[in-house]
Structures are given as C-alpha cells and as structure tokens.
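Following the same procedure, backbone shapes were mapped to integers, yielding the entry below.
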Amino acid sequence: MSSSTPEQTNDAFLGGQLVLTQPASGYRAGVDPVFLAAAVPAKAGQSVLELGCGAGAASLCLGRRVAGLRLVGLERQAIYADLARHNARQNDIPLTVHQGDLEHMPADLRQDRFDHVIMNPPYFRRDRGTASPDTIREGALGEDTPLTAWLDHATRRLLPGGYMTLIQNAERLPEVMSAMDNRLGSVVAKPLSPRIGRAASLVIVQARKGSRGAFRLAAPLVLHEGAHHMADREHYTPEVAGILRDGAALTLV
C-alpha cells in the first residue's frame, strides 16, 4: 500500500507496521531488505551497523521487530541519507545515519564496533552489464566498490563474536565466499528460491567473527506457493507471508 507525491511515495512495509518515504523513481526498497532484516539474530541492547542503508528499510524493519537496539547506518547518497533520517523519525525508531563513502567512513564510525553488521551490496557488476541512466539508481545497484571491500569493512566494524549478514544475487555467492578470510567463520548460506523446483535468485549469507565453525548450506526459502504463477495476486508461502506481513524472524538453519 502506498500514497504518493509527484516525487516521493509513502510505502507500507510489514503489513503497515512501518511506512517508508521513498523516491517515486530510482532505487526503491522492495522485499530484499525485509528478508535481510528478518535474518539478523539481534537482541535488545545490541548494536547494529548497516552499510549502504539507503532509505533505511532494513534497519527500520529490524528496529520494528527488535526493540532496544542501537541502530547506525552509513549511506553515501545524500538523498537517501536524508530519507533514512526522515523515515526513522516518522516511525519513531532511533537510527543514526552517517553520510559517507564505504572507503572513507567518518572518523567516529571507523572507531566504533558493533554486534551486527548488515548490508545489501549492489547486485550488478559493471564489467558484465550496462549502467542505468538514472545516476541515483545506478549508485544503489551498480557496483563500483568491490565485494571484497564491503566484506573487509564489515568485518573490521564487528566486535569479536559479532555477526555479519548480507543479501546478494545467488550467482555471486562464490564471490562472497572468496571475499571472506579467516577472521570469519560459521558461515551459513540460505538460498531464496522463487518457487519449488526453481533456481535460487537471491542468497542470504551470515558469518561470525572469530568463529571456526564449518560452512553450512541451508535448505532454500521458497517464496511463492505452486510451481507456476497462476493468477495476478500474491501467492507467498506461509513462512514468507509471516516475514513480509507480520515482521517474523527468518531462521537460517
């Protein structure tokens, strides 16, 4: 559900528990940040940093599910940093947003450490595709900072024992895995499949700093009921409906 102005829309998330103002065109948050937030095993009193927070969708979905978190976001595009601050205020969820680039973080953020770091890095490599003519959308979806840098900065910001959680295109799982080093362990990969029998389109990856646990490939989360699209309406599975509409947590294993 959404209402709109010529340049912005107000969109309901989590069955209306959260309303986010977003640009009417350009990059717009959909279900991906909701799944990301649902997968974070955060507890009241812990701290969470989101790298590339956009308009705040993932952080605020997490803040709505788990009260008492210290939420911090980093966003390089001013329009989205401002929207994230606005969305935090209008939903009464505390969120501190820093405007800055991943490779040149504000000094106070570089000195901080967190129980969780979450991120939704750009999906598309620009050595394999065509850039969007919309510069704001391209800034959100087109990769100009490599995944290795995203994972390195995320790992640096984690406290010992902290969790890194990200969502990415499934085809890039090998790149995500190769970008991790021995600072991270107990890696879990959770494929997200559109339907039974269909290849995964997205994957959620979680790792723990300082852990030495083995890699686990979890059973896929199937998003839609049935093998085929049968009608022009939602066919989410009950588990997925609970995540998207009720703000339920997503257990990775």
In short: The two ends are 32 Å apart (CA to CA). Residues 136-142 have pLDDT under 50 and may be disordered. The CA atoms of residues 71 and 252 lie 22 Å apart. Helices lie at 32-38, 57-65, 78-90, 107-110, 135-141, 147-157, 173-179, 238-246.
